[in-house]
Amino acid sequence: MNVDRIAAIMLRQFYLYRGSPVRVMPLFAWVTVDIVLWGFITRYLNAIASSGFNFIPGLLGAVLLWDFFIRVMQGVTMAFFEDVWSRNFLNIFATPLSISEYIAGLVLSAIATSSVGLLVMLVLASTVFGLSFLVYGLMLIPFLLALFVFGIALGVLACAMVLRFGPASEWLVWPIPALLSPFAGVFYPVSTLPQWMRSISYALPPSYVFEGMRTIVSGGALSSTKLFWSNGLAVGYVVLAALFFTRIYHQAVRTGLIARYSAESVS
Amino acid sequence: MPSVLSVVDLRKLYGNAVAVDGISFEVRRNEIVGLLGPNGAGKTTTINMILGVLEPSAGRILIEGIDIAEHRTQALERTNFAAVYAPLPGNLTVYQNLRIFGLLYAVKQLRGRIEALVEQFDLQKFRDVKCGVLSSGEQTRVGLAKALINDPQLLLLDEPTASLDPSTARDIRARIRENTARGTAGVLWTSHNMYEVEEVCDRVLFLSRGKILLEGDPKTLPGEHGKATLEELFVTVAREPLTLEQV
Lengths: 267, 247
What we know:
The complex is a heterodimer of chains A (267) and B (247).
Chain A: H1 3-18, H2 21-48, H3 55-85, H4 89-93, H5 99-127, H6 140-165, H7 176-184, H8 195-201, H9 205-217, H10 224-255
Chain B: E1 5-14, E2 17-27, E3 32-36, H1 43-50, E4 58-63, E5 66-67, H2 72-77, E6 79-83, H3 94-104, H4 110-120, H5 136-147, E7 154-158, H6 166-182, E8 186-190, H7 194-200, E9 203-208, E10 211-216, H8 221-224, H9 230-239
Parallel strand pairs in B: 3-8, 3-9, 6-7, 7-8
Antiparallel strand pairs in B: 1-2, 1-4, 4-5, 9-10
């Protein structure tokens, strides 16, 4: 892989963000709204709960991690959409850029943009609502890692879908996190779900993260096997997503869709 | 030394429809070859296959002897293109676009190369202007600057002067000719302007229904086929290809 070519994809994103406040705002605006909203909800729940249970690390922490996952996924797709919106496929894919370099550029762009959102959430949740990350200890790192890697996988998968079905299929990408959230057990234990939904949960890395987070908050011992499993699953999904994107790309080159992308299909 | 471009038995099918039907040709160093033909003849399909964005159904494409199917990156490092239907992203400035494409082509000493191209194409005052607000002529000049950013050995120009006024078009033609004569590159040029083709091209290939129908010097080819001008020959190729002998 050539570092210059990967840097080119990142640099393009940097230029676009630097020149456009409209692009910068969403990096932190929605996560801020979410943290403020859920911060007050958890405060209210703490006030009315008779058990004395602290909802902040369990609920607000979950919102923070879930928002981070969404930002990572959208970081990948937004970088890809810039090529869709500017009809740049012919220019970019006629260069020596390889698919692995292109995906690497998208992923690095996503790291940069999602880091902004994560930082804003961490500062807001800890300073305004008293969320202490010491509660999770070092486990926060593998939690974030599993969500990050799975976010990348879904982002790449979403890009492949848009590449396959054309620019109008962009809307398919946005509801993906919402569709997954009931299965991921973000706000409730997976055991709450019926058996068929639980089967899907076990295939999703975030469900292990949120189960593990609740275990730590309630003072239980976290299973390292499950932690390993969630990260392993996430890595597996990234590999599958990259292979899927590559397959879709080659199909687009074979059919001529890349060169006539604005037509949305070649049939 | 191999030709800059060798196309061997190239074929592209879309289902049962034949877009390009087993064409073979070469582009040599310091040579500008015109790829001519009516709309739908297969010119852009051929160019897209040479650029690696369209997979041939059969045949080989060698750029400086490198097979693009086997060594895509190495082949495309030596290639670049400009086309009226592929403008650079309008939300980036001239400098930003040139820098990004310079990195994509892994150009050494990129800053100096950008400055030289900005000067060569009179883009100094547009350096920090977004490409989307430039006139079509200015955008064409930026597209050509991008096409030369990696000093390509094979330059593909798909109707590069289509949206330009006669004065700017003449200027662009002169720059491309000068650039081709100076270095070791070859150019494959498509155009519907026969005056331009006669002025610029050393050799032309007439494409009709995916096949190369005629090949030769644009100045002598019309006379060889009983036509007064290249435009007249073009019209015959478009309307009555069967009356012309196939090469």
